[in-house]
Amino acid sequence: MTVITHHRLGEPCWVDYSSSDLPASRAFYTGLFGWEAEEGPAEYGGYLTFRSNGRAVAGMGSVMGEQQPNLWTTYLLVEDAEATVTSAVDARAEVRAPTMTVGDKGAMAVLGDPGGAAVGLWEPGLFRGFEVVAESGAPAWHELYARDYPAQFDFYTSVFGWHTEILGDTADFRYATFGPEGAPTGGIYDADKMLPDGVPSHWTIYFGVDDADAACARVLELGGTVIRDPWDSEFGRFAQVNDPLGGMFLLHHIGSGGAPSA
């Protein structure tokens, strides 16, 4: 088990899901990944923390407004959420949710980056973030589908200090990973030509599974949809799915690789 005891500044440290139907979403994700759902105090609005083998891997809360879609959000670790919001706005981001203290757990904010993708910030208090990665039932990769790749690349490298490695820089494939050399955490993909009309830039989360084909079958049993059947690439075996409420995520066959699917 890849237990996380230290999160790197500026990189993903947490993911959570905004749901318009918490009981239905809880049933789907616990049924798919075998997660245990831990209910928070009432003052946190029914927020759930999902655990895999007792270790925190993801969260879930209610959507904040009727027009908000059901979706996963990636949070980046910061030392000072309010100061980072200021720096991000100076770098052409917009504030989607202002800085809010979450008891003694930490502080959070949500931004829209210069390409329109929502991304969270997490300033840790007693809670630092997910406790296991790159295992079955845990986050395995974080990927930005960018409509404005140059602007978004510059934004994250300047505001969050990412170390990047360019995997491709052609009209057909433009992709960069971020994280320490040899141990990247996620990537930025120039998806402008790939995304359907009307679909904005967005972050996507990959969850590890023992068997991508079996996991897809389970998604269907639980009322979800398989958007793209399992496929193999030089980076591993992947599948793209929707939960019953339309929330999209990807499955990564753990042990088959560890970089992007593009």
UniProtKB/TrEMBL annotation:
Domain VOC: residue ranges: 11-124, 138-254
PROSITE patterns linked: VOC (PS51819)
Top-level taxon: Bacteria
Pfam families hit by this protein: Glyoxalase
Gene3D superfamilies xrefs: 2,3-Dihydroxybiphenyl 1,2-Dioxygenase, domain 1 (3.10.180.10)
Name of the protein described by the UniProt record: Glyoxalase/bleomycin resistance protein
Source organism of the structure: Leifsonia poae
